[in-house]
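RECORD TYPE: inverse folding
INPUT: structure tokens
STRUCTURE:
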């Protein structure tokens, strides 16, 4: 039987404290035991992959190749050689956006995006003449998919889109957007930071050309891991250059994948943990994981929905990940999050969540929002204790 408890003890200035962790959209703090073992073993045995023929280097190389093969299979990609490892999805998105989009091209994105998408696009807009249009989100965070086609021009080269909002949890219909992109000959770059490991992703079926993911969220792997998968028609220029362990006399970055996009030493220890995390997810089943997380989300929302002063953001009628963003009256979201942490030992995320355009659409720029995000390792007991905490905060006068 798998231990699914996520209550844990952490060291603080006040000594060891017990914490209920509901900030899984930022990072999953509870990792499968086999992930931890894999990282420890790698730290004890790995040399530097592609930097030698001794057993330590070969051990690292074999593990990293096997991880590529697993990621390719997991996301229905285009071959293990088209799986590029990065330190996180931010790096993957920068490589994809700044390496695949040409100067003076036109790009379509959305109001749901994280700054890891927005800032590279803004940079290219300001420095490389790239034109960017955004599909607007309504007051519930929904998109009108017809807007994607309405915004296409003869100069449009790519659509850059998140698979799910990190603020409301709204799941975007990537397969539908992929059909639009394919019909118009556009690249589709997808930010799967909030869905990898939680929602099944099939690059071929969804017509995704560049899939960017991070390892430390739904994939339950170590921080410092992530990646980029390329379709067979995606051509990406190197975002960084440097040592590769091969073709050292070339003055330019080697052209073959994945070496072209992997300058420098890879995080072999983290990749070993990520590989073990994929094994865990496939053992449990991605649908089982999603069902558990959704049941916790629904239990939480049912418990707080009718409380005085509570406003939950997003559209409850639409498919979403296990995220609930809310405010209590006009109370600052940071103060609510601090109360939950210091008075009740409940970890949440407040503020703007690196999603400025969506906060503007929701009308929460000044207040921010308190985000609760649930993991497979959370329990109903934790949810019930958190509902009671929110009820206490909502008592008359508590937030005024």
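DESIGNED SEQUENCE:
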């Amino acid at each position: 039987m798998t231990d699914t408890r996520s209550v844990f003890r952490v060291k603080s200035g006040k000594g060891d404290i017990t914490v209920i962790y509901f900030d899984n959209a930022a990072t999953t703090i509870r990792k499968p035991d086999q992930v931890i073992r894999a990282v420890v073993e790698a730290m004890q045995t790995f040399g530097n992959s592609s930097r030698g023929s001794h057993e330590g280097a070969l051990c690292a190389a074999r593990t990293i190749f096997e991880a590529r093969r697993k990621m390719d299979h997991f996301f229905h990609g285009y071959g293990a050689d088209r799986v590029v490892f990065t330190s996180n999805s931010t790096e993957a998105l920068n490589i994809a956006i700044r390496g695949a989009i040409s100067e003076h091209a036109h790009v379509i994105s959305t109001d749901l995006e994280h700054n890891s998408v927005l800032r590279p696009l803004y940079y290219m807009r300001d420095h490389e003449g790239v034109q960017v249009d955004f599909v607007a989100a309504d007051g519930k965070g929904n998109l009108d998919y017809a807007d994607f086609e309405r915004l296409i021009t003869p100069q449009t080269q790519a659509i850059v889109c998140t698979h799910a909002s990190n603020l409301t949890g709204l799941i975007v219909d990537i397969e539908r957007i992929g059909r639009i992109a394919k019909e118009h000959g556009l690249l589709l770059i997808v930010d799967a930071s909030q869905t990898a490991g939680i929602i099944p992703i099939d690059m071929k079926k969804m017509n995704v050309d560049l899939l960017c993911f991070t390892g430390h969220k739904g994939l339950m792997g170590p921080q410092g891991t992530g990646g980029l998968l390329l379709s067979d028609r995606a051509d990406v220029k190197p975002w960084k250059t440097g040592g590769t362990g091969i073709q050292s006399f070339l003055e330019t970055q080697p052209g073959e994948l994945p070496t072209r996009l992997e300058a420098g030493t890879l995080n072999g220890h983290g990749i070993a943990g990520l590989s073990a995390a994929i094994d865990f997810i496939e053992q449990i089943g991605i649908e089982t994981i999603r069902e558990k997380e959704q049941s916790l989300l629904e239990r939480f929302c049912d418990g707080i929905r009718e409380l005085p002063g509570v406003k939950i953001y997003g559209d409850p009628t639409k498919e979403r990940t296990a995220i609930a963003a809310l405010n209590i009256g006009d109370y600052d979201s940071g103060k609510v999050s601090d109360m939950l942490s210091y008075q009740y030992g409940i970890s949440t995320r407040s503020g703007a969540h690196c999603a400025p355009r969506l906060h503007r659409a929701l009308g929460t720029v000044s207040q921010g929002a308190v985000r609760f995000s649930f993991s497979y390792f959370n329990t109903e007991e934790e949810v019930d204790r958190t509902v009671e905490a929110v009820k206490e905060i909502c008592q008359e006068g508590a937030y005024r």
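NOTES: The longest strand covers residues 15-21.
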